[in-house]
Amino acid sequence: MKRLMYSGTGLLVLLLAFIAFNMASSVLLPGARLDLTEQKLYTISPGTRQILEGLEEPITLNFFFSDRASKDMVVLRNHARRVEEMLREYQRVAGGKLQLQIIDPQPFSEAEDRAAEYGLQAIPLTQTGDKLYFGLAGTNSLAQREVIPFFALEQEGLLEYELSRLVNSLAQPDKPRIGLISGLPLGGGMNPMTGQQTAPWVVLEQVRQLFEIDNLDHDIDRIPEQVKVLLLVHPKGLSEAALFAIDQFVLGGGKLLAFVDPFAEMDFSQEAMMDAMADGKASDLGPLLAAWGVDYDPEKVVLDARLGMSVGRGQGQLPARHIGWLELLPAHLDREDTVTAPLSLLTVASAGALQPREGSQTRFLPLLSSTVDSMLVPSSRLAALRDPEQLLNGFKADAQQYHFAARLQGPAATAYPEGLEGREPGLRQSDNINVLLVADTDLLSDRMWVQVQDFFGQRISQPWADNGGLLVNALDNLSGSEALISVRSRGDFSRPFVVVQELQRQAEQRFRASEQRLQQQLAETEQRLAELQQGQDPGQLTELSPQQEQAIQRFIDERLDIRKQLREVRFRLNADIEQLGTRLKIINIALVPLLLTLGVLGWWLIGRLRRRG
């Protein structure tokens, strides 16, 4: 048998058996796939499958990639291969309703003209003078177009969502209509703090890709019938007529998504700038929340000692933990609700607290929550905040969990049982309302979840949190389309070193008091030294008495000693992390090779003993 296996005939038999196995598996198991990647990068999600299997009209996808021009770009070609493999998987699942064309647009060819006509982004290659195309253009039977101008490497984690969004847009030409009332500059404009023009918020650009938006006035007295979902973002200064219109819209079966805030840090309106207190940055819905069974104080924000974000304090200073800016992980999200279940990381800033109202019949279903290591403080504390660590002064958890977002369902009564003066009473109650309420607006701002870069004139957004997914998931859910929800939050978001972060947090707790004490001593010493030197006549600084010279030298020595102690404290902050790194290096460099060597020697020894036996 061994002679046959090592002979030329045996090798030929093995080759033929291998070919036969591949041919049989391709015929008998044409759709079999095995994806062993941790994030299932090559497995399409249920939402994508639902979109593709539900196609009624044919869709054509034209994938443009400059294969010949990119022959020396290994990383880009690997990314292009993944895009092509994903598109072929889409074609297979769609079952004939999706046609895929792979096009290499050569210079001065008709294919290059088509790519330019579709609006694809051409990247010049300085080495050869050619242009690189790497984009997708889709068309449907109505000759409508959807385009991905360029597949940037930074957006690899959003690949499936972008492809599914394009196919879904072509499959459903009529987008749901959203009514928007906003007290924040979502569409961009002039920033009064910097005097510069700002770009539209990324969340608004994402919403525009999937929905038609109607901007409504703050004093509107009736919600238009074509509005399927009403979106309120920082609804500050709504008229009584507008509140009554929202009340009637919800009771009449309309869907509402509202973002209120006790302290909207991105509110740079004239009213907010003129009001020295935090009240100018607060928003509320008046009597509506109480009618829907919600308690909300527009003058209180939530602090959480466990969820605080690490923020920078400027050059030469260690990062500080901001317990008013919070990172919410899956343990703090509702894993059953379709809006929050796919999300992995959310960030909120100076968020308010939502609590169920006693005696209310409306169901209060929490979506985002704090830990029990939290407390409520007046929003004015954040209005005058200079150093985030000041929030730790006097912090004492009240052992209560607060909610930042909730879904409101079930029966609800009107907040205006008598109607408005001069108008007939409207609907008095509803058997089932559908409202999503969020007590923070800053989570929608770019700085809290996405990094935006300019890429040859194209704005490329690279999300590091799921805040944008929260908004679009909620609108998808309320508008009746849930197919994209399971797609949106897949990808390579930041995967932090949890052990290192916990070591860092413990070290900060141990040494924060020492650092603050030394910083205070250093400030007092430098102040006394400055006062002593300022008390001298500038013309007589060289004629100091021996006592004055000794005092100045003593303060200088004391300052140097304090700075030395401060350096030691800061060095010890990272001592545990350095020890962890050393242990990992020892394991990787010495222990693992040693274990492998011992294993091979043991296997060889066992085999030798068996042969002797």
Account of the protein in words:
The protein is an alpha+beta fold and 613 residues long. The protein has five domains: 1-32; 39-169, Glutaredoxin (3-Layer(aba) Sandwich), CATH 3.40.30; 175-296 and 352-370 and 401-448, no CATH class; 501-535 and 547-573; 583-613. The protein has helices spanning 2-6, 8-28, 46-53, 74-94, 110-118, 159-171, 202-210, 240-251, 270-274, 288-291, 380-383, 467-479, 485-488, 498-534, 546-573, 575-612, and strands at residues 59-65, 98-103, 122-124, 131-139, 145-148, 177-182, 189-191, 196-198, 212-215, 229-233, 255-259, 294-296, 300-304, 308-311, 320-328, 346-349, 354-356, 363-369, 374-378, 403-413, 429-438, 450-455, 458-463. Strands 9-6-10-11-21-20-18 form a seven-stranded mixed sheet, with helices on both faces. A hairpin with a 6-residue loop joins strand 3 and strand 4 (131-139). Helix 3 crosses helix 4 and helix 14 packs antiparallel against helix 15 (546-573). The protein is globular, with a radius of gyration of 31 Å.
Low-confidence stretches: 489-494
The shape, in one word, is: globular
Task: State the helicity in percent bands.
Answer: 25-40%
Strand content: 15-25%
| End-to-end C-alpha gap | 22 Å
Number of E-type strands:
23
Q: Roughly how many Å is the radius of gyration?
A: 31 Å
Number of alpha- plus pi-helical segments: 16
Query: What's the number of domains?
Result: 5
